[in-house]
Amino acid sequence: MSAASRDKQRPSRRGFLLGAAGGLAAGMAANARAATPVPAPAALPEAPADTEPFWGVHQAGIVTPPQSHTYYAAFDLVTAKRAEIVALLQRWTEAAARLTAGETAASLDLDPGKPDADSGEAMGLKPARLTLTFGFGAGLFIKDGKDRYGLAAHRPAALADLPRFNGDQLQAARGGGDLAIQACADDPQIAFHAVRQLARLAYGAADIRWAQAGFTPEPGAKRTPRNLMGFKDGTGNPVADDAKAMAKLIWVGDEGPDWMRGGSYVVMRRIRIALEHWDRMKLGFQEQTVGRHKYSGAPIGLKQEFDTLDLDTADKDGNPLIAENAHVRLAAAVSNDGAQILRRGYSYNDGVNFTAERWPPWRQGMEYDAGLLFVCYQRDPRTGFIKIFDRMAKFDMMNQFVTHTAGALFACPGGAAEGEFIGQRLFTSI
Length: 430
Fold this sequence. Notes:
- 22% of the residues lie in helices and 18% in strands.
- The protein has 10 helices and 9 strands.
- It is globular, with a radius of gyration of 23 Å.
């Protein structure tokens, strides 16, 4: 088949964004581009192999093997009409299916008087295992005491307001939101591009409230990645490809409303780590704080990362080998009546902050604005994250090095079949 024939048969990002771009054009005529020569269409590559399926019983990006980059964004709804939310979710679902399949515009060949259907920065790039996961915040159901869209009665009990935990220094502008998109990909530009296109499709219905980029090493590797503290992060995770474990711990079952079955609840916490303080600590103290050896990842006193956690062994003086307030002890399932969550965390680095009174900044006044974008999925946050973190917030030795600066909770509905849109059962049940 010739390249020209393939171009005719393959749908492009131009097609799925054209409707939205065309609708915007009338209101943006004053800012239209001057006419320029249109480049000849380039041949599209064959269907890429590095893609993750979008359609299915569950949304992708939850138990999908983690990609190396994420771009997480939350939106505030600005429309007063429920029908416009439905239309937005339909556009987002169609666009997400195409984006994750690696479709891109062959050329920016629209009328020069209209906005481009695609911003273009992903042309020629592979899909990089892109996944897009959508979540609904409490504000979709009720906000400022108002049932804006007639959905309040359908808010799941599990979508409860997160309590204020000990030590929280949450910044409202960095957390919350009515809708959320988690983009994950092995290329940071692909992840950002996807959210950017979905944000363009939301014009007039929703505005971005906050966004956070993150990264993790060795995507798809069998070994546990390390966080910015230098320790392996996620050793105690349940096994994502264990269907029975996921059904028990992660996927909402008959206890939830129909529209949430097959879905999950995600908690996001932006955690700043005082790396400049941590880096001055001796290795032994770091290991006692975490409860694991830094290099092997093994529990204190053991050799291998996945050796069974032993919380009963004492040292020669009768003290617990793993301290009572060590991070790993407080987070362990055996310390929380079996409660477990599926962590999908990413490190973040937003540069440095300087304090003018400590000039020059490169000596004493520099602080990294870096840490962990903690993301976890569970069947019910009340018996998952909230139960686990309540004690950790009070007693964890690690609290002297970390500050929770933002938080959010979203209900991620089940996946969609072709022809459906994400969250359809919520809106058709009204």
